[in-house]
What does this fold into?
Amino acid sequence: MIREALTGLEERGARENSRDVLTRLAEAQAVDGATCEALDTVELALKANPEELVFRPNTLRYRGVLRVKVGQTELAEADFLDAIALAQRMSGKAWELRAAMNLARLWRDQGRRGQARDLLEPVYSWFTQGFDALDLKDSKELLEDLA
It folds into this structure.
């Protein structure tokens, strides 16, 4: 179904949201166990419609997630940091929170718990409402684990 959506976008010449749709395709491929194919799709997503930045932090973040899965932790860390930096420039707090959670988990798993907490805590603290949202619940849980 995602491939059909991509074909439909291409047929109409619509380029907006193509990065997001490709990232969702990569997520589906990864769920299906095709991590290498998902990485290829994420690379396509990062090249798609380069002037559109709105979904780029999420795509960078997801490439990091995939790179963690294949043991490329240094590259994953760079992706998470790039996603955080871009999200900050865009004032995209939700994107920043997601990338910070991924990086905090990576650092926690590497024994860098203090750094992980120091990264995630100020991003989480920025939010003043919506604490029933899954990302905020996950962030709070991760911060409690890091305490």
